[in-house]
Structures are given as C-alpha cells and as structure tokens.
Amino acid sequence: MKDEKCIFCKIANGEIPSKTLYEDDRFRVILDLGPATRGHALILPKEHYADLYELPEETAAELMKVAKKMAARMRERLGCAGLNLVQNNGDLAGQTVFHFHMHMIPRYQGDGQKIGWKPGGPTEEELEEIRREIAD
Ligand code: AMP
Ligand code: ZN
User: Fold this and answer.
1) What's the pLDDT tens digit per position in 69-114?
2) pLDDT recorded at residue 91
3) Choosing from 40, 48, 99, 101, which is the catalytic residue?
4) How far apart are CA 31 and CA 13, in angstroms?
5) Residues with Cβ < 8 Å from 126, sequence gap 6 or more?
6) DSSP tag of 112
7) DSSP tag of 97
8) Distinct helix (H) and strand (E) counts, the chain
9) Which one, of 84, 68, 90, 86, lies nearest residue 22 by Cα?
10) Based on the number of CB atoms within 10 Å of its own CB, is 6 exposed (0-12), middle (13-18) or buried (19 or more)?
C-alpha cells in the first residue's frame, strides 16, 4: 500500500530522488537530509506503514537484517566508533514523518551529539506495579 501524500512513499519508491545507499525489493536506505552525524541514514520500507504499530512482524524482521548489513558497512567504510538505532513513534516521541523509518546514526569520538534520556529513580514497588501492568 502506498500513500499518495506521503513523501517517504515517493522517496522509497524512487519517484523523488534521494541519496540512496542501498535498495532491494522491500526497502530503500537513504541519507538523512538533516543528519545528526556524518552518514546518518534512514531505512524506509517501500510499503506505507505509519509507525511500529502498523509495521507487519515479517517486515520488522527483514528490516533488522538490512540494519545489520548497513551497520557493518558503516563501521567498515566510515570508521565510526559506534552506532545508534533510533525509531520514533508518535509526535510526542519526536516522529515528524509518519511513514515508518529507522534512523541509523553513526557515532564518532567528539561528534557533539547526545542521544539519551534523564534516568529516573523508581522504587521497587513502582517497578513491580509497572511490571504487572505490562507482563503477561
Ligand atoms: P523523525 O523525526 O523520526 O520522523 O525523523 C524524520 C527524519 O527525516 C529527520 O531526521 C529529517 O531530517 C528526515 N527527512 C525529512 N525529509 C527528508 C527527505 N526529503 N529526505 C531525507 N531525509 C528527510
Ligand atoms: Zn508512506
């Protein structure tokens, strides 16, 4: 399924040009136009899924294979010291383009980026309450 109004559908399917790093019949990997670091890339499924909730399990599994392939290539070719995989779902979580995409952000010594969160300090009781809410 494609969404006529979705820019990532058009990029993923080659209707809008992009700096493509990799392509197969299901995915296109492109350079992000507003990169956090050198080589910041996005893995786009060619089908339209708004976010992780919509992404079929099988597509998710295939996408992680592409991520692994690209991670190895980035380390080898760019000489990055590490890599962040980031994937935002929902505007509150920072999603701005509502076509599923996985960020691949190569990391370098002194790159000045900080991808993280402020750690909380829950009590054991709070952790247990949350565990019971989520676990089966
Ligand atoms: P997110 O905030 O997770 O939805 O990420 C959207 C990302 O897409 C941002 O990092 C943007 O820089 C990037 N982006 C938006 N439009 C384009 C485009 N036309 N080509 C490449 N990257 C884009
Ligand atoms: Zn789309």
Assistant:
1) 999 999 999 999 999 999 999 999 999 999 999 999 999 999 999 9
2) 97
3) 101
4) 15
5) none
6) -
7) S
8) 3, 5
9) 68
10) middle
Q: Long-range contacts made by residues 111-120, C-beta under 8 angstroms, separation at least 24?
A: 111/37, 113/36, 113/37, 115/36, 115/84, 115/86
- Determine the distance separating the centroid of ligand 1 and the alpha carbon of 1, expressed in angstroms: 21
> Ligand 1 within 6 A of 32 CB?
yes
Residues in CB range of 44: below 8 A, 6 or more apart: 8, 11, 12, 27, 28, 29, 30, 99, 100, 101
Work out the pLDDT band at 40, boundaries 50, 70, 90: very high
Q: Which atom of ligand 1 is nearest to the CA of 31?
A: 21
Residues written for the chain: 136
> 104: alpha, beta or left, given left = phi > 0 and alpha = psi -120 to 50?
beta
**pTM, to two decimals:** 0.97
Task: State how far the Cα of 15 lies from the Cα of 101, in Å rounded to an integer.
Answer: 17
